[in-house]
Amino acid sequence: MEKIKAWAKNLKRQTFVLYLAYKDNRVPWYAKLFIIGVVSYAFSPIDLIPDFIPILGFLDEVIILPLGIMFALKMIPQEVIANCETEANRMMENEKPRNWLVGILIILLWSLLILWMAKEGYHLLNEGSF
């Protein structure tokens, strides 16, 4: 059980590293774009695969999210990662990042996706294609 807790804590720390790296000017734009997706997904209350689905429900936390973090870290210069790791360790000891703008953006994006899906479903039902 201790190994699982350590693994989860490391995953959380790496997510904070990405959050901090996003703000660094030395990180390329394409990496920042990928980082936005990974961090948004990590902090989003909505999962790609809902947790109530047996076994598959935890697939995103065990496979998808760690892979996204791994690929994102490979896009970031090593000196940026070293700086961000130090800051992430401090943040985990003292505080958590609060960025209400990003939180609102995540909620807005999910809302737009849900509205679009509802609209498409409504059109399919009215056309008789469904």
Automatic annotation (TrEMBL):
Domain DUF1232: from-to ranges: 31-67
Species of origin: Mesobacillus maritimus
What is any Pfam family matched here?
Answer: DUF1232
Keywords from the UniProt entry: Membrane, Transmembrane, Transmembrane helix
The positions making up the signal sequence are: none
Q: How does it sit in the membrane?
A: Multi-pass membrane protein
Subcellular localization(s) per the UniProt record: Endomembrane system
What residue intervals traverse the membrane?
Answer: 29-46, 52-73, 100-118
Entry protein name: DUF1232 domain-containing protein
Source organism superkingdom? Bacteria
